[in-house]
Amino acid sequence: MRAMPAMTVLAPGDAAECESMIRWATNYVGPVYLRLTRDPSPALVDTSYEFVPGKTYRLCEGSDVLLISTGPQTGRCTQAAELLEERGISAGVLHVPSIKPINKTEIVLACDSVPLVVTVEEHTVLGGLGGLVAEILSEHSPKKVIRFGIEDRWGESAPNDYLLDEFGLSAAKLSERIEKQVQRINR
Q: How far is CA 62 from the centre of its chain?
């Protein structure tokens, strides 16, 4: 959807953000693609939240790795950051609710202080958030970017918790995968 001209692509992280996006979209003139999931998500924002297209939100500070995520996967990234902290790895989390448009400057500034950027999404790694971040950083601040998501394969239908483990996107699996990447960088 990101490749379609004039398309707005949104992925709310929780119910309050979704409500705010829907209110915004009803007043917007143009096409809007709103990515929704079937399972509830933990709260990321409060009910006073107002959606701003392109804005990003730093949810956790970290110096070893920055996890950039969208939609409900952001909640899992904050959980993974807590697990990583227990292992001595400082992980920041940046929530990106608007895939298109995006504030490139916010992405570049968020990534400046870390040696490794990991994008995480419940989406194919082709054409989504990971590709977007890699495109921005390759033009403005070249940096190592690892993309976690669904590899180039057909999706499956099953309970969400099973699928998250299957694709390595649960908080526990993410923390393990990220720890390995941080160790590779620090060698």
A: 16
Helices then strands, counting H and E runs in the chain, come out as 6, 8
Average confidence (pLDDT) over 145-166 = 89
Name residue 117's beta-bridge partners.
Answer: 66, 145
Tokens standing for residue 173? 């699996």
Sheet with 145-150, side-by-side order of all strands: 57-60, 91-95, 65-69, 117-124, 145-150
- Coil, strand, or helix at residue 8? strand
Check pLDDT > 90 for residue 10: yes
Residue where the block lists tokens 């929530």: 95
DSSP 4-63: STT-EEE--SSHHHHHHHHHHHHH--S-EEE---SS-----S-TT----TB--EEEE--S
| Domains in the chain with CATH codes | 53-185 (3.40.50.920)
Average pLDDT across the chain, whole number: 94
